[in-house]
Amino acid sequence: MNLSLRPIIVAIACTISLSTFAEPGEKIYKEVCASCHASGVLNAPKFGDKAKWAPLIAEGQVVLTAHGYVGVRGMPAKGGNPNLSIEGFSDAVAYMVNKAGGNWKTPDAKTLAAINKEIEARKAGLNQKK
Ligand code: HEC
């Protein structure tokens, strides 16, 4: 390859990957969550509504992600998509949180393990109520 072109090609590749992966949850948010969260259907915390999201953000990433994944009142488990992985769901939550004043990242392995543990605990608790 002509060496003088390399920096340009690298720059283009970086721009493409940044725009694709800058906010990993965006695609899932748009595909799965926006139908309710964009407008606040059924009193869903609305996208970008800092006042609504502040107390949820305060619950912390592990608890909020786990409880959302299991389902909370009008919030269907997995956002209503049975095929949605916990990784994908976590990213979508982080995306909404970050658009409402938070600063969450894609959970690392340790955080993910804590989320999965909380999911099991939550499920067990919900089952007891029946
Ligand atoms: C069918 C409508 C609907 C869809 C689709 C939906 N949500 Fe929700 N969501 C709700 C409603 C309604 C609430 C409020 C629940 C409540 O507190 O009563 C909610 C609440 C939440 C909460 C806060 C949970 C808590 O502990 O209070 C999170 C986090 C959340 N949703 C994330 C998501 C994500 C991520 C997706 C997409 C993967 C999604 N939701 C898709 C309706 C929806």
What does this structure look like?
The chain is an all-alpha fold and 130 residues long. It is built from six helices and no strands. The longest helix is centred in the C-terminal third of the chain and has 21 residues, at 109-129. The protein has helices spanning 6-21, 26-37, 50-58, 61-70, 86-98, 109-129. The structure holds heme C. Heme C binds at residues 28, 32-33, 35-37, 41-45, 56, 64, 67-68, 72-76, 79-80, 84, 89, 92-93.
Rg on CA atoms, Å: 18 Å
Bound molecules: heme C
Spatial gap, N to C terminus: 67 Å
Overall body shape: globular
Largest sheet: none
Structural class: mainly alpha
Helix content: 55-70%
Treating each run of at least 4 consecutive H or I residues as one helix, how many helices?
6
**Which regions have little confidence, pLDDT < 50, spanning 5+ residues?**
none
User: Approximately how much beta-strand content do the residues carry?
Assistant: under 5%
Order of helices and strands: HHHHHH
Number of strands: 0
What's the rounded overall pLDDT mean? Answer: 89
Summarize the structure.
This protein has 130 residues and is mostly helical. The radius of gyration is 18 Å and the shape is globular.
Task: Throw out a few tags for this protein.
single chain, 130 residues, mainly alpha, 6 helices, binds heme C
Topology:
Blueprint (H helix, E strand, L loop, with lengths): L5 H16 L4 H12 L12 H9 L2 H10 L15 H13 L10 H21 L1
Bound molecules: heme C.
